[in-house]
Amino acid sequence: MTTKNSARTTTSTWTGVVPVDDTELAVTDSGGSGVPVVYLNGQFATQGYWRRVLAELGPGFRHITYDERARGKSKRSADYSFETAVRDVDAVLAARGVERPLVVGWSYGAFVAAHWTSRNPDRALGAVMVDGAQPYDWLDEAMEQRIRKLFKRLSWVMPLARPTGLAPRMSAEQMAETNIELGQVARERALGPVLDGITVPARYVLASGTSFGSRGDEQERLRVALGAVTARNPNIEISAKVASNHGAILRKDSRAIADAVREIAALDRAGR
Fold first, then answer.
1. pLDDT tens for residues 15-45?
2. What separation in angstroms does the CA of 61 have from each of 5, 49, 190, 200?
3. Using an 8 Å Cβ cutoff, are 52 and 250 in contact?
4. Distance, CA of 238 to CA of 128 (rounded, Å)
5. Per DSSP, what are the bridge partners of residue 241?
6. How far is CA 88 from CA 7, 83, 98, 104, in A?
7. How far does CA 179 lie from the centroid of its chain?
8. What count of Cα atoms within 13 Å lies in the side-chain half-sphere of residue 213?
């Protein structure tokens, strides 16, 4: 059985691994004939972080979650680059037979969602970016050093947290490098054209306050930068700004995220 959105509709939940390059990604597919939604995690988070959003949306959608390389139950890799994270979306979609998903990304995953959506205008149903993918030049030499020092200080506790799934199976240096690369990806001259190239409905759900590692009003300055994005591209709107901070938004404001997903799904149905 096939639908407009998926090449293969599954009738029950599937949990397994998807081999890609030198690793294997742990994937869960709820199955069903609803709109397929693929969820893209925060930088060091796991697919379990989405459970309240999935519960809020319910069985009317087909939910596909997965752990990125060396996160959760996925295997280690020699490549943790941002480009690899974007390519892994295609690997998961191909393995599950999904042709046209709605992508939802939080934090780091929001950047992945923005890039994937911009590069795949004919395949993306739409995108929801949750407190991420804001174009802002926050990375300089001082910030780079701050990031390296932070992860070096945390290096002793990471092995203790890994068995619980709360930390990736990456070295402190690897974690710092992925964070620094994200700062490069976030630069206005790099991310601005990506967002300008989105031609399908896209919605932001923004948090308030700070996040781990940020200081003062750093996070709010990032969020304000979205005003120029929405002014340039009518496909992109801010769906909600909620009271939760960056780390708690999936848990405390799952309804706002689910509402943004429903809005885009409804726009797709209305446009058929």
1. 999 999 999 999 999 999 999 999 999 999 9
2. 11, 17, 33, 19
3. yes
4. 10
5. 206
6. 18, 9, 13, 15
7. 14
8. 16
